[in-house]
Every structure is written in structure tokens, then in C-alpha cells.
Write a structure and sequence with these properties.
The structure is a homodimer. The first copy, chain A, has five helices and three strands. Chain A is α+β, with helices and mostly antiparallel strands. A three-stranded antiparallel β-sheet of chain A has the order 1-3-2. The longest helix of chain A is centred in the middle third of the chain and has 13 residues, at about 55-65. Chain A is globular, with a radius of gyration of 13 Å. Chains A and B meet through helix 1 and helix 5 of A and helix 1 and helix 5 of B.
């Protein structure tokens, strides 16, 4: 069974969050995930339909390891959700502002 | 004569700014620079007194290329200042929030 590693809320760092968001593709993934209630698969949240699966996996792993998303295996798909409460608790206002500024 | 390359205000990107600030040493340099009125030399704004000159130069170049600081040659020293108006004009509230959250 695939196990995904997520940092605990206390281990989410400002530097890690900024680094993970310093990429237009990852910003688009976060925006897609925040548009829906509940989870999205990696392919549903892909910023480009023709993005290589390995590239997509890399972006999701970067977001996960920074503490920005939580991934769970459901059937044959990985389902992702933004850890909005954890991020807002650690860094109030940051994610909202960055998403607004990236428009 | 040393010429430093600075992006124009319009060419400063959100991704570049986030990437440059995703490092605790660079955040400390920015904080030091913002504490003074006017410019600081690289050694005055160094986050650690024993940081290698090449490492320090790398951090200043990263900040400069992201559009966060402006460097000018004055005598034998490079003088640096945060491009606070340009950054606030491009990304209102971002630098202030990141600096607050990094405390």
C-alpha cells in the first residue's frame, strides 16, 4: 500500500511553503484544488492536460512535502486536498494573498 | 567598472520573489537592510559574520536578480537597498506579511 509522508502542522516551514509556491504550475494546482469542495485526483488538478506524469508527480510531491496538500490513496487514484486550516493556522493570510497576487 | 543587472519593476515576478525569500539567510539579509535608512554594504548586512564571501555574494545576487534589492558600487564596496516601492507596487502587502510571519 502506498504511504504518503506529510509533515505535521508544527513542522510546516515558511521557507518550504514559499519554495513550493514559487512555481506557476504549482500555484495553478493549488488554485484548482481550492475551487472544489473535497478532493481531486492528480490528473483532475493538472495545470496542463499534456503534462508528463512524472512532472505532475514531482509537483504534487513538492506541495505535499511542504505541507500544502494532503494526499490519500482512493482505489487506483491519489486524491488531494489543500491543508487550508493547517496553513492558515501556521501562516495567517499568506496563502490567500499569494493566490490573489498571482492572478 | 562593475555593472549590476536589475530587472525593471515590470519584470519582477511573483515566483522570483517567493523563490528568493524561500531561504532563512536571505530573509535575514532583507530584514537587516530594512532596519536602516539608506544603503548597507554586503558585509554589514551579512546574516552571519563568518559566512563565506562567495555564499554571501550568491545570496545578494539572488535577491538582486529577483528585484528585491538594488546594488550600487560605492568606492570599494557594494551598497544595497531594498526596492521597497517597486516590490510594494508589484505585490502589495507581500513583503511585509512574509517578514512578519518569519519572526
Amino acid at each position: 500500500m502506498v504511504q504518503f509522508v506529510h509533515p505535521s502542522k508544527e513542522d510546516i516551514t515558511l521557507e518550504g511553503v514559499l519554495e513550493a509556491l514559487a512555481d506557476p504550475m504549482r500555484l495553478r494546482i493549488i488554485k484548482s484544488l481550492m475551487k472544489v469542495e473535497g478532493c481531486m485526483s492528480c490528473s483532475e488538478a493538472a495545470p496542463c492536460p499534456d503534462m508528463a506524469k512524472s512532472t505532475l508527480s514531482h509537483h504534487f510531491r513538492t506541495l505535499r512535502e511542504a505541507g500544502l496538500i494532503r494526499t490519500t490513496k482512493k482505489g487506483v487514484e491519489n486524491q488531494n486536498v489543500v491543508r487550508i486550516e493547517d496553513i492558515n493556522s501556521r501562516f495567517p493570510g499568506l496563502l490567500k494573498l499569494i493566490l490573489e497576487l498571482s492572478n
